Amino acid sequence: MRVLIAVPTLDVGAADEGAADLAVMLARAGHIPVVVSAGGRLEAELARAGIECIRRDMASRNPLTTARNAAFLLALIRRRGIAAVHAHGRAAAWSAFAAARGAGVPFLTSWYKGFREQNLFKHGYNSVMARGDRVVAVSEQIADLIVERHCTPRARIAVIPPAVDFDLFDPGALTAERIEKMRAAWGVPAGTEVVLVAGRMLRRKGHHVVVRAAERLKTMGRQDVLFVFAGEDQGRSRYTGELWDLVLSTGTADIVRMAGPTDDMPAAYAAADVVVSAAVQPEGLQRSILESLAMARPVLVSDLAAGTDIVLTPPAVPEDRMTGLRFAAGDADDLAFALMRLFAMAEPERSAIGRRGREWVLARCNRSRVAEEMLAAYAAVLAPRKRF
Predict the structure, then answer these.
(1) Residue 195 burial (10 A CB sphere; 0-12, 13-18, 19+)
(2) In the chain, what is the straight-line distance between the N-terminal and C-terminal CA atoms, in Å?
(3) 102, 268, 299, 344: which sits with the fewest CB atoms below 10 Å from its CB?
(4) CA atoms lying within 13 Å on the CB side of residue 51
């Protein structure tokens, strides 16, 4: 089976990494993926795996560029005998959708987060992601959002979370030296609780909410806490500058570290006592949450960061089954309260939370299961049956 994967870039972000993972997954299953994108750091990794990457300006929103890309993809589909087209990201999806329909081959999309819909134009622009013969949602929360916004039949949606590399994210494979090296790089004093916020520095991820929560904890007399922001801003210096201003105005410079990206994320998770995702808009499912769970770290998530199908929290489950805690999106006081509750737990209780999280993600996000579910989605649209 030859599959055309269209994605804006192969750099940083859920769509980029999702497209790259899909290509590798298909190749390992004996299929032939062809990835079309504007390129990026992940392109070299795919090339080393023997996966063909073709460069086009798939990130452009210019209608003329989209039309030219659609014509290029249509010719590629016919020339290569492409069996299905899979789009990741809206800019690439419009040209991929036109090409797939022109060639009469199945069209699939993957949703990673809830796109903002400020007006009818944005709603229309986003709608291409709901036009797939199969729409892959990373979580039930995103699946519900797709149905609500676009009236997509639930039968067309396949909920498939990303796969996690359990060889890389294995707490048992880390040495104490690696963990201490990371804590030293962050300047963590002895006896200090580390709150890690992993991922890109974007407003929608709610770093500003975390700074406000840090202020609340400091006001309550908690000085033995360090908040670490481990992620890049991709040139979005305006938001980073706003965060620095907020840190200075709240007097939290002594307990907030903007550490930037790290090459050793397993050690970063292991060096943390808790990992926070403070998303202020529907985020779908951040890889950092799954990786944190795989590293047996307790997680605190806003109600827009992950649904109850991903992070098991009371009251959806009893406390002896929870893998983290939840707080109201944008509510710094609620986040501070959740942190205080976690810090008050005895170490065996925290360890049990982390252990349950790892067990959950091992069962749900292993590569074989994710590959099986993704291939089933392809089989459903390729089978000689009624198209939705």
Answers:
(1) buried
(2) 21
(3) 344
(4) 30
